[in-house]
Amino acid sequence: MKNILNTINSPQDLKGLSILELEQLAQELRHFIINIVSTKEGHLGASLGVVELTIALHYVFNAPKDKLIWDVGHQAYGHKILTGRRENFETNRRLNGISGFPNIFESEFDAFGTGHSSTSISAALGMAMAAQILGNKTQQHIAVIGDASIASGMAFEALNHAGVTNANLLVVLNDNAIGIDPSIGALKDYLTQTKNGKELNRDNIFEALNFDYSGPVNGHDLSKLISELNRLKNVEGPKFLHIVTTKGKGLKKAEEDQITYHAPGKFDAQTGDRITIKTENSPLKYQDVFGHTMIELAEQNDKIVGITPAMPTGSSLKYMIAKMPNRAFDVGIAEQHAVTLAAGMAKEGLIPFCNIYSTFLQRAYDQVIHDVAIQKLPVIFCLDRAGLVGNDGATHHGVFDIAFLRCIPNLLIYAPMNELDLRNIMYTAQLGLNLPIAIRYPRGIGEIIDWKQPFEKIKMGKAKTLKKGTVTAVLSIGTLGNIVNFAVDKLPVYKKEQVGHYNMQFIKPLDIKLLHDICRTYDTLLTYEDGVINGGFGSAIGEFVLKNNYTTKVKMCGIGDSFIEHGKTQELKTLAKIDEASILNTILSTL
Ligand SMILES: Cc1ncc(C[n+]2csc(CCOP(=O)(O)OP(=O)(O)O)c2C)c(N)n1
Ligand SMILES: CC(=O)[C@@H](O)[C@H](O)COP(=O)(O)O
Ligand SMILES: [Mg+2]
What we know:
single chain, alpha/beta, Rossmann fold, 3 domains, five-stranded parallel beta sheet, 38% helix, 15% strand, binds thiamine diphosphate, binds 1-deoxy-D-xylulose-5-phosphate, binds magnesium ion, Dxylulose-5-P_synthase
């Protein structure tokens, strides 16, 4: 049989195909995605689930003239492959390769950049309203959003607004009943009832919001999808199509274990078996240290509760959710709610550990200030994925948190250098700090195999002197300090004596006494952080030096004033000059 996928270089090439040919194309597209993701890694289940939808949308609509927006964008692999990126799809998420998410700089077919969830309806509505204002009557606007993403506040805000406009907007709800972890909440229950034909005499929620609702439609039935999309194309105003799909469709293992196969790493393309590297006698991931320590602490202190907005597996709060379901909560993709929920609990005397990926906390900035910090509520924020996260790229790096949190009064900020520090700060925080604290730690494995040591209390605002010197002091924050240690070790002996290294631990409050000593001793301070230097930890040190009229030189090292793209974390560290070799060179340049 002739391969059809190889003949599709743009959606125009789909237009003349029969339904049978489109169905063949769907199978080829699935295999193509499976083959590449099995070796190059990336998000799998979501793209497999929307293969038919992707083909149907590109068959019925005319992108790039019509605007197609993929919420989160982790399901857009099929879209990328059909829109001229088949040949370089194997560079997906790699350094200098294509992005794992839609990106307006990559292709005119990517109508809007995504990565963080629940933005698609607002963006599509904005485009639809722009089209009206600009007198463009023929352009179509489609937002494709998942069942977990539509439950987020931003999506509700957009639906609420769209319903009182006559904008030409189509929202396609791709309902597979799962996010990364199973979807949660009353809306999920409602959707389940709708799918089962049991709406229990309720009005349809989406019709109540003034959308023209249709569905549920089997999202793997190409002819049904095409005929429904063709009908909706000619309906005026906001429209809502509810489709039902299976995440991971077409790969048995991915259908059976949808959580793991959201982004499974390398696997055998035929059997679906994951290729895991044996990790015996290697350190755990920071996430697992967090997850197990939560249980340990919660067993000792019954005031402790855990909160995650939709990342129980990623954050490892899943262990506590499984063991203590009444004290650990997945609240769905709801970062703002997660923060204020934690504030409410803290106000009533509970000790909430609110675990949020650094990048997703950006969503809840006002809540951190308005609901937590102003009221000095002792919420313990565990900011997972702080620093460079690697292949997810610019939308996901946790590089802004130090800069955007440092300016908030009443908030303590701490970065552990290793697992023991992480455990000890978690222990210390739950003893009672009377202030909120943000604990930032990176994605991935740590440094220490024997991490389960007895807890020790950490002194607030105290840095650790790792090594004394005479000429240059390196001031580091977090796990980057380990790389600085390696770099310092590589210095020639007579130069090594000149270099001091301080693990500052607290970005706020700074260890002022030690900083005075350091400024009196050294000619140059080198600050190292895995976050932006504009406004970050280095800026804090620079401000200290300026305020106290020291003449000490300060060189700030970290992420500069540009977005870091995708690639292996190690590659990105090298680009940002926060890898061992660059640190060594920078230190040498100051001696
Ligand atoms: C604001 C935000 N919070 C969390 C995430 C992490 N995240 C990525 S995909 C996803 C689940 C999305 O589920 P759904 O919308 O149902 O799409 P599906 O994967 O099922 O296609 C989550 C929680 C994110 N990208 N953005
Ligand atoms: C699309 C998305 O936002 C998530 O799937 C994210 O890629 C998860 O990142 P981790 O792999 O670091 O949990
Ligand atoms: Mg889903």
